[in-house]
Structure formats: C-alpha cells, structure tokens
Amino acid sequence: MQKILIIEDEKAISGVLSSILEEECKGYDIVVAEDGLEGFKLIEKEDFALIISDIKMPKMAGNELLIKTLEIKPDAIFVMISGHADIDTAVKCLKDGAYDFISKPIDINRLITSTRNALDRKTLQYQKNILLTENKQLKKRITKKYKMIGDSEPLKQIQNMIEKVAPSDARVLITGPNGAGKELVAHAIHDLSERSKGPMIEVNCAAIPSELIESELFGHVKGSFTGAIKDKQGKFELAHSGTIFMDEIGDMSLVAQAKVLRALQEGKISPVGSDKEIKVNVRVIAATNKNLLEEIEKGRFREDLYHRLSVIEIRVPKLDDRKSDIPLLVEHFAQLIADEQGNAKKVFSEEAIKALQNFSWTGNVRELRNVVERLIILGQNPVIADDVSKFVQK
Q1: Which residues contact 87 (CB under 8 A, 6 or more apart)?
Q2: What are the Sigma-54 factor interaction domain coordinates in residue numbering (predicted)?
Q3: pLDDT at 141
Q4: Which pLDDT tens digit goes with each residue over 277-310?
C-alpha cells in the first residue's frame, strides 16, 4: 500500500492532519515523523506518494529537508506548511521544488484539495514512468528483433551498403528470396537515417486485395465506396516525414503502380473519392522476391516505376550462400526465443550446428528460426545432432 508521510513537530497538528488524511485518502497508509531528521531517514528507506512537511522543526528544517530529498529522489512530491512564513518563504519553497505551500492555521478544504491534486500528479507521474520503461523495453526488443546477424562476406557487403545509403534520401529496392531478411535491411536503413525519428510504415502489397490497395496506400473519404463509413488516412500520409516500406511490390496491380508512380513524381497523393491533393514527404523502400526486369518484359510491371524505385538496389543473399553465419544465427534465435518464452537459453552442441549447416535452406533465415524453435521445444539441453536428425525433416 502507498504511504503519505507527515513531518510535524507539534503532535496536536500532526494528529489532526493524520485523522483528516486517513478519512480523505482511503487506500493510503499515514506515517508520522516528529522532526526533519526522522522524516529524512524514513524517506531514505522508502518512497512516499506524498510528503507533507512543516518548515520550522528541530534537527532539520523543512526547506533543508526538501532540498536534500529532491537530490536523492527527484520525483518526490512535497506540500509545505508553516505558521511563520511570508510570501518570500512560500515562493522559495516552490522554486526549490515543492508542489504547494499552505500557511497555518491550515485551511482544511485547501489541504484536502492540494493533497488530492498532488496524489493525482503522483499517479500520472507513475503511469508516465511505466510507459517510458515499456517504451524503452519495446524499443530494445524491436532493435533486437531487426538486428542483422552474421559476419560472412555477403552480409558485410550489405551492411557496408546500408551505412552508405541510409543517410541519403535515395529510394532503395531490396531484392532476394522469401525469408532471406529483406525486412531487416529496410529497418536498418530507416534506423540509420535522418528519418529515424519519424514513423516507418509497412505495407505488404501481396496481402492487400487489388481493389483495396489504392485506399490502403492513399486513403479514402467517407462514402467513396461501399464500406467506406468514415474518412481514412492512407499509408503514404501516415508515413509523412518518415519511411514507407512497400514489401512484395512486384505483386501490385498495374493500376496501383500508376498511382504510386504519380506519388513519387509529384510528392502528392489524392485519397479515393476526393479531388484534394495532399503533399507527402516520405522515403520509399521497396522489396520483392521477383525479378522485376522479367516482370517488365511480361508486361506485369511498369518500367518507369522500376527506375523510380531502384535508385539503389540491394540484393539479399539466400541462407545457402552464407552458411558460415548459421552458428551466430542459431545463438541469436536461441536467446531471442528464451527471452520471449521467459525460459533459460538452450545450448546447441557443435555437432548440432554442423548438422544444421549441412542442410539446404530453401526457406532461408525464416525457416532456420522455426527449426531452432522446434529443437528448443523438443530437443535436449544441450541440443545434439541426434535431435536434429530426429526432429528436422529435410
């Protein structure tokens, strides 16, 4: 249970304050200290939701207590009280970090109002701290999730390319087979760019029906088609000042391709059903597992859009072309899965690693990750070669 600390050398006043707060602040324990030094010792040992302190007290004055406390606990909330104070004293307390100042004889209604407001502020402060902690943890998990693992020559070349490309605003086309890590490259480019403070909006062009892709990318206005019950912002608008990652762009219809080409050329979009033009400032990163030059020859992809997208092209190799990275990838996935499941990390024996390196990975890094999770669930600790032959069907 949270506590409120009253520091007051006059027992009659501390008794009255204690009785009032016990009645008005249900759910809080009321603790009383008889002088500033006793109060400070309590504050050193534990946290209080609120500290109500007199100013003139033996052993340690309230204004000294306020300053010393805020040095070690800057989030502490003080309401100062005094019967020997003037305006200068009140102003100094507030400048030194007190939440409020109340003169004696104490106005009970003023005390109750100030106490409630201070406790509300403490609650908001607590919730904010929780959100900040959660955001840091989330950012840490996201960074870990999208970290590129390996020290093979093909991966080093990609990382070198990313470092050169990221600071610019050049459009990037990422190619390579499914599961090879194209998404990781896109995130790495965004994270190292000047746009990293802005959003990174992802669109899986293959997962959106062709009749809805225009609405998804550019938004729509209410009533523009059946089911459009309210205005909706598109992905391009949501990505303003950041990056839009268009995955599987080779699966986009020719009609949608024409709309995207216009957005890239003019830096403007028009929501479905609207004549309004919206300026957008986005960096476009696209990815595909298809050979777009072949798609162009077959009439399924616009050549002008291809040249707009492929200012820089990065090809992500299949896992079979960088098998030397498998030990590091297994180590990374084992730790990641342990963190996700809240378990101790399982170790993989050298023989198990070698067995995994002998396979052909048609599903690339994504397939390896799934296999590692399967072996962690079903295998021994450490995971041995026999587990690999037993639980991995190749």
Answers
A1: none
A2: 148-377
A3: 45
A4: 999 999 999 999 999 999 999 999 999 999 999 9
177, 364 contact by CB (below 8 A): yes
Most confident stretch, 121-135, 266-280, 299-313: 299-313
234 or 104, which is more confident: 234
Q: What is the chain's length?
A: 394
Is residue 123 over pLDDT 90?
no
Task: Give residue 334's domain range.
Answer: 321-391
Q: How many other CB atoms sit within 10 Å of the CB of residue 44?
A: 11
Instruction: Write the CB contacts of 183 (distance below 8 Å, at least 6 apart in sequence).
Output: 146, 202, 245, 247, 287
Structure tokens at 4: 């409120």
Cis omega (within 30 of 0) for bond into 382: yes
The structure tokens listed for 239 are: 């990505």
The 10s digit of each residue's pLDDT in 9-58 is 888 898 999 998 888 888 889 999 999 999 999 999 898 989 999 988 88
Count helices and strands in the chain by DSSP H and E runs: 16, 14
Q: Residue 248 is encoded by which pair of tokens?
A: 């599987």
Which residue has tokens 């730790």?
Answer: 335
Is 156 a member of any domain?
no
Record the pTM: 0.64
Q: HSE-up of 23 (CA within 13 Å, CB side)?
A: 9
346 close to 383: Cβ distance less than 8 angstroms: yes
Please tell me whether residues 85 and 230 are part of one structural domain. no
CATH number reported for the structural domain that contains residue 226 in this entry: 3.40.50.300
Is residue 152 a part of any domain in this protein? no
Helix (H) or strand (E) run with residue 82 in it: strand 78-82
248: pLDDT strictly greater than 60: yes
